Every structure is written in C-alpha cells, then in structure tokens.
Amino acid sequence: MNRTLKAALMSVAIFSASASYSMAKMPASADTAAPAMSVDKASFVKVVTSSNEFEIESSKLAAQKAKDADVKDFAKKMISDHTAAAEGLKKAARLGDGAPVLSPKHAAMLELLKGATDQEFEPLYIDMQTSAHMEAVTLFATYAKGGDDAAVKAFAKKTLPKLEMHKMHVLGLVAAH
C-alpha cells in the first residue's frame, strides 16, 4: 500500500474515532438525555500522557521536516506547551518519573509521520494535529466538568484554554494550506 493511501486511511480512522468519541457524549434528544460521559482519573492520565508524548515527538519531527515557517512555529509551540503540560500532569496526578508510553494508536500515527515523504509530511502533520486537538479539547472539557480527582480536575481546567488556543491555531493552518 503506498504512503499516500496509508495516510488517507489513517486520517479517516483518526477522524472517525474522534467523531465517534464526540458523538458518544451527545444525548439522543432532550427528552431522552443520558448523563454526560465521564472519564476516570486513570483513563484520563493514560490518554493524556500518550497524547502529550505524541504531540511532542510529532512536533519534533515537524520542526525538522516542515518547510512552511508557520508549521515550524506551531511545532515549536507544541513542543514547549505539551512538555509543560506533561510536567503539570505529573505533578497533579502524582506520577513518578517513568518514561511516557505511546498508545498503539499514537505509535502508529508517529510511524506514519516518520515514513511520510517531504510532500506528504506537512498535510499529514496538520491533519493529525487537528484531530489530536479536537480530541484533547473534548477530553479535557469532560474531565474538567466531572473528573474524580480534584488536583487532576484543576489541571484539566487550567490546561483547557491553552488547548482551545492550539485548536484554533491548527485550524488556521488548515485554512492556510
């Protein structure tokens, strides 16, 4: 399977997962509204740890491989902000100093980026960042509203506005490309 087709399939998979995740928390109608989706601390920490590591590692690649100055600037901001977020999560969740682990999904996405040609790289990176930030905003908003750990919930509330800014920034890159 060629790289472009792989990239397209990965994009569809990422978008589908993101859409499914977002749809899962929406009630069917006002009359039959189910309780809002909730996320426990362990699940939140596991997903956020992997997401932060993906953001950092994929953005390190973008800082090296991207040709567009705006994409390079965005990547540098992601490295800085997500490194700080990873440290904030470690403190809030009282995590040790172990190395972060990428989920299979994030590992596959990172491998796809590593294998992308120069021509494929920027659109793929921007697409992955868009999906990642859509998911992150949904996850952080959910935990900030109903999280089961006060310190981690405070971290989610504090971090959410920055993630929303990242989402707007990457959507600007989408519009520009």
UniProtKB/TrEMBL annotation:
The chain positions of domain DUF4142 read 41-170
Signal sequence extent: 1-24
Q: Which InterPro entries match?
A: DUF4142, Ferritin-like
Q: Keywords of this protein's UniProt record, alphabetized?
A: Plasmid, Signal
PANTHER family recorded: BLR2558 PROTEIN (PTHR38593)
Task: Output this protein's name.
Answer: DUF4142 domain-containing protein
Species per Swiss-Prot/TrEMBL record: Rhizobium tumorigenes
